[in-house]
Write a structure and sequence with these properties.
The structure is a homodimer. Chain A contains 7 helices and 15 strands. Chain A is α+β, with helices and mostly antiparallel strands. In chain A, helix 2 packs across helix 5. Chain A starts with a strand and ends with a helix. Strand 6 of chain A pairs antiparallel with strand 1 of chain B.
Chain lengths: 336, 336
């Protein structure tokens, strides 16, 4: 029977409607094909094509090699078609009842591997660790600019998830505002903390680990679970078990377990769902905040097996035919 | 240059990034194909297949003919795979920190025409008028149940917009909650009213009609415009020029002009964008509210030419490469 669930982290409502469920193979949308990409050898993110991107901002090159030459492991470049740009300003403009600010900010691409066909499911844990280490370095560098309020790191994998290039990459958008999805989490988490004097996420972790029904995977430092109010079939969250509000303050010693958790989750999704398209985002505290007692950074992974339609856009409520308990059960069983 | 605009109706931020713009033909995504549908003659919404749907709730049958037989003009049936169901309950359940209510509600399908290949761009104005008249009848009937708080009417047209059947149809979800996207509009509009003692939408209409830069089309009763903070390329809103908070209280005399406005907008989109997939939603005041001074019902039309990616899902901020001023200019010029 259907249920209208509320996400304690955002207040977001979700309709869990297993009556609309299909078998997992039917979830597979022809658009989730990952092989839309260029096969002509002109991929701008491949090793040897460094001249096709703007000059690199950062690259991991052990052993050292000249900038913008081959032999890198992870490479960060400015987005050639930026959504926000350092050449903009933050000036406020009004036009009658309307308001805008200039599109100032930074939009970078993190090329995650020299390998054109790698994914987080197939890369080594060492390589995934380097990618997350690179995210951290970029945040630590960019946050020196006090005008920036937030850095969102996200990944579009596969055509149905909004990717336009197959070569594995993430993106970083550094902004002069805190995005609404993050503000919403901050507000709900702060209200919860005021009431209970506990971190909402820590309490949720404790409950979920004890109950087990929505658990997907865990190791010493991280837990992967199916959110109670999952918007998408097989949605997952990865959370650090120890309280920490900012991703970039994660202890270096946890990096290996984070990489393991990410690799295992993505491999389980690939195994259970036959290489789905997906989005991944890191939600972390706004820049310039002292460590927050009430907020807890985490990763959200959203397989994109179904379309976002008029109901979702018009209501803000997602309809999900796959109960997270069933999704978690299948992902726990998935062999990797 | 990029701009970070704020929608005065929801507070939602949008990045207008024309640097990311493509020519209109490039906007066309292979997934926007409307011809995904069944050609086998087994369409459950076609005339003569009435037995393939659950028994009808309402049908316009002039001249009268028996229920669930052919010769109807518009037909309303229960959704066979409902997201919410009248058999559910509204009981609140908790599971530790999590909360849900039962998935009680109603999910109906409005079959807009006996013609399998018709769209709002090709139907007669008379037929579109009958469809909106049917929406109105269903709301007036359903709102007798005091447990319902909101009725959302929406339409998915084309594969990329979430439609699974080609035959023209809309859907209606009657719910025991007010959806967050509507609450957000109500809150922003109420705050504005408290400050200015005017309806935000009326003020916006006055400004937009005077400025003209985002105007798409208008007639005596309705205005179609490109929202200042459009989330999607070629997004449009249709608003009644006279203040009215509830769609179902629209004067019957306006129905003809509403149908004309919808038909012209959809035909302009088809002409400018080569038959895009799109979503349409009606935003109206919650049920059981007295007429509201501060809220103004309207229709939102969202062509689905680009994907919703990790940035949009993770931030709540949409990146739109098409400035609404340019979209409006092209749609004004589009010949229908």
């Amino acid at each position: 029977m259907q249920e209208l669930r509320q996400d304690p982290v955002t207040g977001r409502r979700v309709i869990i409607a297993p009556g609309r469920a299909l078998r997992p193979s039917d979830f597979r949308d022809p658009d989730t094909r990952p092989d839309f990409a260029d096969k002509s050898g002109s991929c701008p993110f491949c090793e040897g094509s460094e001249g096709l991107t703007p000059p690199e901002i950062l690259a991991l090159r052990p052993p050292p090699s000249p900038a913008n030459s081959p032999s890198w492991l992870v490479r960060v470049v400015p987005n050639k078609y930026p959504a926000l740009s350092p050449e903009g300003d933050i000036e406020r403009k009004t036009e009658g009842i309307f308001e805008s600010i200039g599109g100032w900010g930074t939009h970078e691409v993190i090329i995650e591997s020299p390998g054109h066909d790698q994914t987080f499911a197939t890369m080594t844990e060492g390589q995934i660790g380097r990618v997350f280490q690179t995210f951290r370095s970029r945040i630590l560098d960019l946050k020196k600019d006090p005008r920036l309020q937030y850095i969102l790191i996200f990944k579009n994998h596969g055509y149905a998830a909004g990717a336009t290039l197959r070569h594995p990459h993430s993106q970083l958008l550094a902004m002069p505002v805190v995005p609404s999805e993050v503000s919403r989490e901050l507000q709900w988490a702060e209200s919860y903390f005021k009431l209970k004097e506990h971190c909402l996420f820590c309490d949720m972790l404790q409950q979920e680990v004890a109950a087990g029904t929505r658990m997907i995977d865990r190791n010493e430092d991280f837990v992967a679970l199916a959110p109670y109010a999952s918007r998408f079939p097989f949605e997952a969250r990865i959370l650090p078990r120890k309280h920490e509000s900012a991703f970039e303050n994660m202890p270096a010693a946890s990096l290996e377990n984070l990489a393991r958790s990410v690799k295992r989750l993505m491999a389980k999704l690939d195994s259970a769902l036959a290489l789905p398209a997906s989005n991944l985002v890191i939600h972390t505290a706004p820049l310039g905040e002292a460590p927050l007692d009430y907020y807890h950074w985490h990763i959200e992974v959203m397989p994109r097996l179904s379309k976002i339609g008029g109901f979702e856009l018009g209501s803000g409520i997602y309809i999900n035919p796959m109960p997270p308990e069933e999704a978690a059960r299948r992902l726990r069983k998935a062999v990797v």
